[in-house]
UniProtKB/TrEMBL annotation:
Coiled coil: none annotated. It holds the Pfam family Trigger_N. Residues 169-251 form the PPIase FKBP-type domain. The gene is tig. Consists of 3 domains; the N-terminus binds the ribosome, the middle domain has PPIase activity, while the C-terminus has intrinsic chaperone activity on its own. The keyword Transmembrane helix does not apply. This is Trigger factor. The keyword Cytoplasm applies. It is found in: Cytoplasm. Its EC number is 5.2.1.8.
Amino acid sequence: MQVTETGAEGLKRAFRVVVSAADLDARADARLNELKGQVKLNGFRPGKVPVAHLKRVYGKSVMSEIIEQTVNETNGKIVEEHGFKLALQPRIKGPEEDPQFQTLLDGGKDLAYDVELEILPKIELGNFKDISVEKPVVEVTEAEVDEAVQRIADANRPFATKEGPAADGDRLTIDFTGYVDGEKFQGGEGQDIDVLLGSKGFIPGFEEQLVGASAGENRTLNVTFPEGYAAKELAGKAATFEVTVKSVDAPGAIALDDAFAATLGQESLEKLRETVKARIAQEYAGAARQKVKRALLDGLDATHKFDVPEGLVEQEFYGVWSRVNEDLAAQSRTFADEGTTEEEARQDYRRIAERRVRLGLVLAEIGERNNIQVSDDEVTRAVVERARQFPGQEQQVWDYYRRTPEALASVRAPLFEEKVVDFLLELANVTEKTVTKEELFKDDEDEKAA
């Protein structure tokens, strides 16, 4: 066997491999001898089939198997002998592309093919203690707890039939039929639908035009679907809804006391307040964690500069770019609507893809060097949590992950990433800064707007 390096540029390597016909034929004959005691052919006793006859019957399929094994083994040796870490699977200009491939299957011909490899870069890790990040801290106020408890009470407030016109806060039960350009549209009809006036649960203008309506009254509502409406065939279009008000209910009083807390499964109002406060604190902690993680990743990105495999960048970019175009299509928007061009957007998202790949490689290197691992039990618990998000379908979800290695890897990867982040935060210079709720979420809102 001859292996000749034919290219070395950046992280790409190319080799020409030639395996002699004698080597292939010897391996094929050995395989046929193995089959001799296994196959059953009419007219021959078990184990007594002549090898020459086996070759006539199975020769091409055996040689095809030997070629595949040889290619895989040879590629493995190239990687091992050069100490490569592959970014992607080898790209082979295989023997099947040879016009004389069928002749090769007959034996007596050298196997020659080209293999292209893209390898992972050698990463020099920086000093993590040089990274400084600021952790925002928000104290949960009693006023916030009061507001949250009140929202819970409002959501559980009793309603009673009301005589007279409806006002904000009242609940109407309606039937409606919608028209666009004089024609009914899919999803534009509903019966016994509850509408809470002032909740902004319907498209703009719908609830407002029902203020003052009484039970038994018919109203015609003129509205316009938002430009970003989910059903793109309706986005931005004017519509008319014929509405029949079937009943008007007014909200009743509700006492914030231990009895109310008991209806929610809490021992007392104080326990309910504690639960609400803990949930708000958990929300703030999650937002703070994301800010700290983002700052940490920015620090890693600034201190680690190296070439990344083009193939990995292409894969990441394709995934990001596909989602971008799907989102634009769903909203019936264009790049011009976003204040950019397709070419500029491509460049921006390619930079994002490159950053993601680089940071992924850095995190993987840190995890490997420091023996950071995710146990099978941790993965199992995460899958169970995902399954619980689909009541009644838990077994199907569990079976899907158990049968799909890629899906299981998608569970393991974020667990690994969070472990590496925790490891780095132990070493980095983390300082706490008290901020307001608005400051904590400001960047998130800015990013969503962008």
